[in-house]
Amino acid sequence: MIIDFKMKAPIPSWEPLFDAGKTSVLELFPYLKNEQPTKAVTFADVIQEMDGRDIGYGVILGRDNVPGSSNEELYQFLQSPEAERFRGFIGLENMTINEAVETIHRYGATGAFSGVTVNPAKILPLTNIDDPTLDPIFEACLAYDLPFCITMSLLISLLSDKPDYDYIHPKRLIPIAKKYPDLKLIVSHAAWPFVDEMIAVAIHFPNIFLVPDFYSGFPNAKAYFDAANSGLEDQVIFGSCYPNVNYDYALGFYQEYLTDSEIADKVFYANAAKLLGISE
Q1: pLDDT recorded at residue 254
Q2: Residue 2 forms beta bridges with which residues?
Q3: Rounded CA gap, 168 and 152, in Å?
Q4: Could you give the dihedral angle defined by the CA atoms of residues 27, 48, 92 and 268, in that order, rounded to the nearest 10 degrees?
Q5: What is the Cα–Cα distance from 95 to 124, expressed in whole angstroms?
Q6: pLDDT (tens digit, 0 to 9) for every residue of the chain, 280 residues total?
Q7: Neighbours of 38 (CB within 10 A)
Q8: Phi-psi region of 114 (alpha: psi -120 to 50; beta: other; left: phi over 0)
Q9: Strand pairing partners for 87?
């Protein structure tokens, strides 16, 4: 069985967000120009695609508190029978630090969510992730034993109000990982293109986990899998970024490079299951 640690589904009110995601990334990168968007439209279509690839669970990373991508809409979905195979992370985009902390407390107290997520370019005002003023966010995560997923890549910087990829450098995670060793830090996009730097930081901090997602086929990305095959197998996790890329692309490089079945099981399932509290 596979756990997809980063995906979206057309849950109620999120249908336009899902539809827009099918082409938004494919149009940005020449490395994806030959990839076809998923043909899935409905929630049932997504479930069928997951079933066809032995994906038992999907993690939906929240966005913000804005209708059409809100934490409340995700919360309502997580309470429904359709959410049995899904986990949700509280999103903190376009919030001040105080608003983010309040949001974590509001939804963390429900017990419905499995983590917290943020795009660092969307913190208001734009703040380096290792700035001590953000500590209340990490402390709120720990209060509810929620992992913290941060999306880090050059794309994130370029889409910010003040493009400067220094603030998505893996070195920014070192003070956080040292100060909060019990906080599980999941790095979506795995800080590409800082591949070697991200691997080096993860080697020194076992509370850091890497999700290369659609960057798995980009230049130098094979190093993430080389790391998993040579000692970092407990800290690399499969995530697709679906529907930004289709499942065949998302799974392909992981399956090609992870040839040891025990290591593959950790990356595709066990590491994520441990973070999410899933036992089967």
Answers
A1: 97
A2: 55
A3: 5
A4: -90
A5: 6
A6: 999 999 999 999 999 999 999 998 888 888 888 899 999 999 999 999 999 999 999 999 999 999 999 999 999 999 999 999 999 999 999 999 999 999 999 999 999 999 999 998 889 998 889 999 999 999 999 999 999 999 999 887 777 777 777 888 999 999 999 999 999 999 999 999 999 999 999 999 999 999 999 999 999 999 999 999 999 999 999 999 999 999 999 999 999 999 999 999 999 999 999 999 998 6
A7: 20
A8: alpha
A9: 59
**For residue 170, what are its two tokens?**
């893996």
275/78 Cα distance (integer angstroms): 18
Q: How many residues does the chain have?
A: 280
* Contact call for residues 222 and 257 (beta carbons, < 8 A): yes
Per-residue model confidence (pLDDT) at position 247? 97
CB distance 12 to 73 below 8 Å: yes
Please report, as a single letter, which amino acid is at residue 170.
Answer: P
Nearest to 9 by CA among 217, 119, 55: 55
Burial of 269 (0-12, 13-18, 19+ CB in 10 A): buried
Q: Using H for helix, E for strand and C for coil, what is the string for the chain?
A: CEEEEEECCCCCCCHHHHHHHHHHCCCCCHHHCCCCCCCCCCHHHHHHHHHCCCEEEEEEECCECCCCCEHHHHHHHHCCHHHHHEEEEEECCCEEHHHHHHHHHHHHCCCCCCEEEECHHHEECCCCCCCHHHHHHHHHHHHCCCCEEEEEEHHHHHCCCCCCHHHHCHHHHHHHHHHCCCCCEEEEEEEECCHHHHHHHHHHCCCEEEECHHHHHCCCCHHHHHHHHCCCCCCECCCCCECCCCHHHHHHHHHHHCCCHHHHHHHHHHHHHHHHCCCC
Whole-number Å distance between alpha carbons of 105 and 77: 19
